[in-house]
Design brief:
It contains eleven helices and eight strands. With 273 residues, the protein is of the alpha+beta class. The chain has one domain. The protein is globular. The relative contact order is 0.16.
């Protein structure tokens, strides 16, 4: 293992430092579901990088589309132009450029990209993650949730895997909280594809979206600030810049809405409850 890989493992995967990092960025939510924060709360579309505006101008929006319909079109249009690959974790403009060039992108890159496109199109959006256990999780994943004006509800959407979700006996879209409440009642995940594109790891869906998965909202992600730091220190690996931002208190947070993360993830007797 090279020096750089050793340092990366030490900062991101060493059990003690992983624990410390997790404690520093995690919080339990005690407010009302309807008051959950959005990406739009602390980000401004005037600060979006030009490449997003240039790309967005090519997407064939139609008049009177609501937030969910616009999001489906954004995802469908981009998904046919981005094949994904290695994780990036770069500034938003550089990530989009590389992904459009076919040079990478994992679920977190996709969900962060969608945040910015939604912001640019006045779509209220949230970014979520799931984990099934605290350390060395096998089915961690990132996805989004957008507001539909026509339906007057939040709707979960998985940009990377090309999905939105519903119950077995009806096609009404579900919010993230509704989805995981449904799964924890013992139901299997039910979903629809929003385009004809398919990714190679669709077999993971049933594990990622299950009653054992623990959803958390990713909050306090200031895209402008992250872009500034990632661009300023672009010679450093992204995980070092993220560690720096945690120490400076400028980092994002994981907000656990349905569970007490201290009991759910840290209890010795519960491995992947």
């Amino acid at each position: 293992m090279g020096i750089r890989k050793k340092i990366k493992w030490l900062l991101t995967r060493h059990p003690l430092l992983y624990y410390i990092r997790f404690v520093l960025i995690c919080r339990n939510y005690r407010g009302k579901i309807e008051d959950l924060p959005t990406f739009n709360d602390i980000n401004k579309k005037e600060e979006v990088a030009p490449i997003y505006r240039e790309t967005n101008a090519q997407i064939p929006f139609e008049p009177n589309m609501d937030g969910f319909e616009k999001t489906l079109l954004i995802c469908d249009w981009l998904r046919h132009r981005i094949k994904g690959g290695r994780g990036l974790g770069l500034a938003s403009d550089e990530s989009l450029r590389l992904m459009l060039d076919g040079k990478g992108g994992i679920c977190s890159d996709y969900s962060q990209m969608l945040n910015v496109f939604c912001l640019l199109n006045d779509i209220r959006v949230r970014e979520w993650g799931t984990v099934e256990k605290f350390y060395n999780a096998m089915h961690g994943h990132n996805y989004n949730e957008v507001w539909s004006e026509k339906r007057q509800q939040w709707i979960a959407i998985d940009f990377q895997k090309n999905l939105w979700f519903h119950k077995a006996n009806e096609k009404k879209p579900l919010s993230v909280i509704e989805l995981f409440t449904y799964l924890r009642e013992g139901n299997a995940v039910c979903y629809e594809y929003f385009s004809d594109w398919r990714c190679i790891d669709m077999y993971k869906i049933g594990k990622t979206y299950s009653g054992n998965s623990i959803p958390f909202l990713i909050t306090r992600y200031n895209n402008k600030v992250y872009d500034q730091y990632l661009n300023k220190y672009k010679k450093l690996p992204p995980f070092v810049v993220n560690a720096m931002m945690i120490l400076l208190g400028k980092n994002y947070q994981f907000l656990f809405v349905m569970d007490n993360y201290k009991r759910k993830l840290f209890a010795p007797s519960k491995k992947s409850n």
